Amino acid sequence: MPKTRYFLYIAMKDDSVDKLVEIVKRLRAPDGCPWDREQTHLSVRGHLVEECAELLEAIDNEDSEAMREELGDVLMHILLHSEIESERGNFDFYDVARSLSEKLIRRHPHVFGGNSAQNSDDVLKIWQDVKSKENKPRAVGGLFDGIPPQLSALRYAYDIAKKAPPEILDETLARAKKKSSCGAPGIGAEMFEIVRRAVQSKTEPESALRDYIQEIKKTSGEKQGNQDKF
């Protein structure tokens, strides 16, 4: 099926998304829900973090039913933030979906264009090449350019270690150790080195640690009569 017809088919397949958009609009209407009308981008930040955490728990537990529910809760936040921006005349949910569709097609020329990719490494090279040509301006340069500081410390360190050229990172870490207010680098430096090892072995440390914690929980439950004390 040609890609244009494919995406048209997807768009027409189900009107559930349209219904969701209208429901959120109704909730935000003057005669809608008082609580929903009062919400802003900032007021629901904590709720979004909580919903993402609950989705991660469902994924860790391999609970498909819970995953479907939690994905819906995360989607609700996407719809709400989009509706707030729509009220300001900036963009709506359909603009978000359209931008994402265009980006996915643009960053997968080996699927939707004439490029070829034989393995995941080829795909990552193509992805980075296309991304670098998009030329989105960033406020901060250097090692931290384009890395959201709101990430968990473990993921933040991973993205830095993955992005930075080894020689530049070594030099930066050496300067950081000399200026350390506590003298010895400590546990933080040791953890960062573990993250660098994870990058070298192509292991995402956040997932690796979560997987190991899941194993600990399973073992704990077996030994304590399935009484989870974590």
What this model shows, in words?
With about 230 residues, the chain is an all-alpha fold. The chain has helices at about 5-15, 15-30, 35-40, 45-60, 65-85, 95-105, 110, 120-130, 155-165, 165-180, 185-200, 205-225. The longest helix has 24 residues, at about 65-85. The N and C termini lie far apart (about 50 Å).
Q: What keywords describe this structure?
A:
single chain; 230 residues; mainly alpha; Helix Hairpins; 3 domains; 12 helices; 69% helix; globular; disordered C terminus
Q: How many strands in all?
A: 0
Structure classification? mainly alpha
End-to-end gap: 50 Å
CATH T-level topology of the largest domain: Helix Hairpins
Overall CATH architecture of the largest domain: Orthogonal Bundle
Give the overall shape.
globular
H/E topology pattern:
HHHHHHHHHHHH
Number of individual domains: 3
* Residue share in helix: 55-70%
The Rg value, from CA coordinates, equals 22 Å
CATH class of the largest domain reads Mainly Alpha
Beta-strand residue fraction: under 5%
Uncertain residue segments: 224-230
How many distinct helices? 12
- Average pLDDT taken over every residue: 83
- Main sheet, how many strands, which sense, barrel? none
Write the CATH homologous superfamily of the largest domain.
Answer: MazG-like
